[in-house]
């Protein structure tokens, strides 16, 4: 039985929705693999991945099956009870990472909120209320709640909402000396993205993360890695910290964890987790059976050598072609990033024009992203097929050609 829907159009957004987004002029209605179709039936190749979320593309059969089976079994019972999908996914995340304990919630902001609250709670319980300061990086992004947007180092997102949360300092990314100068015995946590996502697809130097780990140890501060965007296979390892060999105390995951279904997790150790006793923190939907069933299916596919080695191979295919296109058309000089989180850094002549490149790509039937005004970002499915990579990059080339010759 098909459900009859009322006809909707893009203009309805402007009539009914809060204007905090400016969505594209077309409305996607269906997706399969790395392809998407809009209301007019136009086909697009998706290298945006729902902003690094659609880790297995659209409508992956394993995810559809997991969700359908769970939808016919149990939807929601709250955290007054536990449930089997939560316990299965929690166990698998612990077995696959440094972590010993997992807290499930619904979004990257919520995972970071939990991480920051836990860091402050641990310091408060062990050292007293004075030890509450958090150090984060400029141009970082950690979410949109008042706490997470204050920790994020982009004033354009945090200004204009009244007094900010106190005790937060920002230092330049990849600058160990600046971190060394800022950290003190009042610091409860240093918060870093191993690869800055929204800040321009900028990977950390290994020595920087190693130094941050040592500084945290020396000052009894916790090292928090925000892997909302870099995690779940995106880098070519399950989590980016594994590339660096630097283990955090707390890690946040979201985006790709649910492959498009809203779920997030905060991972930590038993020793730290014990500070979150019953009643200290919670969430109504966190650990929801639907989300955890899908998350388990995602993890089972992503955390295999086949998928992770595939990410590395596909990354090389993207990088090689993008570098050649950069040289040929002269819009960007550098391709940076890791795995299938890549950024084309626009040159002086094109600085600030990432949105123009996005629009030109869209006109050629390709969905890409920006990471700030100066970087064109690619975050495709980790299982994107080679023919889709080649076709998508051919469309990207047509867009670059038109821009360069305009």
UniProtKB/TrEMBL annotation:
N(2)-acetyl-L-ornithine binds at residues 144, 283. Binds 1 pyridoxal phosphate per subunit. One of its GO terms (biological process) is L-arginine biosynthetic process. GO terms for molecular function: identical protein binding; N2-acetyl-L-ornithine:2-oxoglutarate 5-aminotransferase activity; pyridoxal phosphate binding. SUPFAM superfamilies: PLP-dependent transferases (SSF53383). It is found in: Cytoplasm. Its cofactor is pyridoxal 5'-phosphate. The keyword Cytoplasm applies. One of its GO terms (cellular component) is cytoplasm. The modification N6-(pyridoxal phosphate)lysine is found at residue 255. Pyridoxal 5'-phosphate binds at residues 108-109, 141, 226-229, 284. It catalyses: N(2)-acetyl-L-ornithine + 2-oxoglutarate = N-acetyl-L-glutamate 5-semialdehyde + L-glutamate. HAMAP family: ArgD_aminotrans_3 (MF_01107). May also have succinyldiaminopimelate aminotransferase activity, thus carrying out the corresponding step in lysine biosynthesis. This is Acetylornithine aminotransferase. It comes from Ectopseudomonas guguanensis. The gene is argD.
């Amino acid at each position: 039985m098909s459900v009859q829907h009322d006809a909707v159009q893009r203009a309805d957004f402007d009539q009914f929705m809060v204007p905090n987004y400016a969505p594209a002029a077309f409305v996607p209605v269906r997706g399969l693999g790395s392809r998407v179709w809009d209301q007019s039936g136009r086909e697009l190749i998706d290298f945006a991945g729902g902003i690094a979320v659609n880790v297995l593309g659209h409508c992956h059969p394993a995810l559809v099956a997991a969700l359908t089976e769970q939808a016919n079994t149990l939807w929601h019972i709250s955290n007054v009870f536990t449930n089997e999908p939560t316990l299965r996914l929690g166990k698998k995340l612990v077995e696959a990472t440094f972590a010993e304990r997992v807290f499930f919630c619904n979004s990257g902001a919520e995972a970071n909120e939990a991480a920051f609250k836990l860091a402050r709670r641990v310091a408060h319980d062990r050292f007293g209320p004075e030890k509450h300061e958090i150090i984060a990086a400029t141009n970082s992004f950690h979410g949109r709640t008042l706490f997470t947007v204050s920790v994020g180092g982009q004033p354009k997102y945090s200004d204009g909402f009244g007094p900010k949360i106190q005790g937060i300092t920002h230092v330049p990314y990849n600058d160990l000396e600046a971190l060394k100068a800022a950290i003190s015995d009042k610091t409860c946590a240093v918060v870093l993205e191993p690869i800055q996502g929204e800040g321009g697809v900028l990977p950390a130097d290994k020595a920087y993360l190693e130094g941050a780990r040592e500084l945290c140890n020396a000052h009894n501060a916790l090292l928090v890695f925000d892997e909302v965007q870099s995690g779940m296979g995106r880098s070519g390892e399950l989590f980016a910290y594994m590339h660096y060999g630097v283990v955090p105390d707390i890690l946040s995951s979201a985006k790709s964890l649910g492959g498009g279904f809203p779920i997030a997790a905060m991972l930590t150790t038993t020793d730290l987790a014990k500070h979150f006793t019953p009643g200290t923190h919670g969430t109504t939907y966190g650990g929801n059976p639907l989300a955890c069933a899908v998350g388990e299916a995602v993890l089972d596919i992503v955390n295999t050598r086949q998928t992770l080695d595939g990410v590395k191979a596909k990354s090389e295919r993207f990088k090689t072609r993008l570098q050649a296109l950069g040289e040929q058309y002269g819009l960007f000089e550098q391709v940076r990033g890791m795995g299938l989180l890549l950024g084309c850094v626009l040159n002086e002549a094109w600085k600030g024009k990432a949105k123009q490149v996005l629009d030109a790509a869209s006109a050629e039937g390709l969905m890409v992203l920006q990471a700030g005004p100066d970087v064109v970002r690619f975050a495709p499915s980790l299982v994107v097929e080679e023919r889709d990579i080649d076709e998508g990059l051919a469309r990207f080339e047509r867009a670059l050609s038109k821009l360069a010759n305009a």
